[in-house]
Structure formats: structure tokens, C-alpha cells
Amino acid sequence: MTGKTQLKRKTQQVIRMLEKHLGIPVRNNDRKSPDPLDMLIATLLSQNTNDTNSYRAWKKLKEKYPDYESMYRARTSSIESAIRTGGMAKQKAARIKELLRNVKKRYGKFSLTALRNKSDGEVLEELTALNGIGLKTASCVLLFSLGRNSFPVDTHVHRIVNRIGLVSTPTPDKTFLAMQELVPPDKMYSFHTNLIRFGREVCKSQRPECYRCPLIRMCKFGQKKVKVDGNRKLNIAGGKKRDFMLLDNV
Ligand code: SF4
Questions:
Q1: Nearest residue CA, atom 2 of ligand 1?
Q2: How far, in Å, CA of 97 to CA of 95, rounded?
Q3: Does residue 40 share a domain with residue 137?
Q4: Is residue 30 part of a domain?
Q5: Last residue of a domain, one of 111, 129, 145
Q6: How far is the CA of 229 from the centre of ligand 1 (A)?
Q7: CATH, residue 216
Q8: Do 155 and 141 fall within a single domain?
């Protein structure tokens, strides 16, 4: 068996194990998918802050400017005051203005609905060409706004898949490229969503709770931290669920 085949098999084991303990997340087809431009701005607001604060900033911004034309025409300082609760308001306000300017210049209007007719590769290419939009954000637009199979890699996902040994990559962008080959397309939504929750509740950045982790038999990093106890069970299914507060409300 080649190394790549082994890694694909291991990835599928991890996916199954997380689905067993956390459930199989499904896309909510009853709810309208977030508009791609809304998602870009919401993601921008979510940087360097928590879900609660970024959601407050998002709500205030949308209340103050019901459409992107009025947001674009507003003074940067006025946008800044609307998003103050989200932190780094000055920089974020300037970036929102720049993003709107670039979208208008490229697509002729304040909308990214044109992306719906493009291939995954074209969407990634066009979004990452916009100043300040990286692979993670572009991949989130594919997955959550356009309903495609994409596997966004943020710091949680990057940390966990490196610890488990699915990849050995120095940056989230390199992890993104490596993981596209390992994750079956129809499992990208489930795996991404479960990893975010798993990273917040168990495989935390500081002090991962390896002693109660069902993946420990596959994780050399965790095995170094604790002795394997076969009777321990993961018990996080009833835990506090706080994934995608922002995205659920965009
Ligand atoms: S064993 Fe520890 S490091 Fe490995 S995946 Fe589980 S929590 Fe993370």
C-alpha cells in the first residue's frame, strides 16, 4: 500500500470516528445559503475576535447599511463606529471599503452572485485575487455559500490534522492543498464541521484533552502526552455546541 493510500484510509477512519462521536453534520437545505459577499464581510469581521463580538458587529453593520451601495458610499469612520464591538475596527472598516471597491470594479456591482456559474477552481482563483482574501475564506464561500464540496482549513483544522499525522505541513494553505486529495468530496462538509467543534472542545491549541480522545490510538502526538486507556470514552456529544454561530446567522 502506498503512503498516499494509507493516508486516505486513515483520513476515512478519522472521519468515521468523529461522525460516530459527534454525529454527521448535514447542510441545512431549508435555510437560504449565505450570500457570498455577506460571507466575505462576515469572515473579515470574525478575524481576531470571538463569535459573539463579530456577530454583534455584523448585525450593527447590516442595520446601519441595508445595502452595499450605502456601505460603500459611507465614510470609513462611520463603518468603523458600526463595527467597533468586533475589535480592530479601523483596519476592518478600511478593508471592507477596499473589498467593496474591488468587487464593484471586477463584477460591475456589489454582488458575487456571478460566482454561482463558475467552477470551484475559478471561484478560488477569483476570490483569492481580491486583496485580503485567502484560501481559507475562499474555500468557506465554496462550502457554505455555494454548496460545493470544499474543505476549508483554518488554524483548528491545520493543528489537528498535523497532530494526527494526516499531513506534515507548515501552514494552513499548504494543509489545504494536501487535504484536498485525502478527503472524499462528499465528506468535506461533515469533516470540516466536526473538526472545528472537535478543535474547540477536545483537541485544543493549548492543553488538548488527549485522555478522553477517541482518536488517540491513531495519534502519536496524543500518545506521547498520555498513556492509552482503552476504556476511556469521548463524551462531548452533549457538550456546549457553539460552532458557526456567525455563519449560521449570516
Ligand atoms: S489524541 Fe490529543 S492531540 Fe491527538 S487528536 Fe486527540 S486530542 Fe488531539
A1: 210
A2: 5
A3: yes
A4: no
A5: 145
A6: 13
A7: 1.10.1670.10
A8: no
Looking at 165-250, list the stretches that DSSP marks H as alpha helix, in order from N- to C-terminal side.
172-180, 188-201, 220-225, 245-249
Selection from 144, 127, 143, 147 nearest residue 135 by Cα:
127
The pTM (predicted TM-score) of the whole model is 0.85
Longest dimension (CA), the chain: 61
pLDDT in tens, 101-128: 999 999 999 999 999 999 999 999 999 9
Domain range for residue 175?
3-24+151-249
One domain for residues 40 and 124: yes
C-alpha grid cell, residue 40: 466575505
The answer as to whether 31 is a domain residue is no
Closest CA to 141 of 42, 69, 217: 42
Ligand 1 contact, 211 CB (< 6 A) = no
Q: Is 138 in the pocket of ligand 1 (CB under 6 A)?
A: no
The ranges of the chain with pLDDT < 70 are 1, 29-31, 227-250
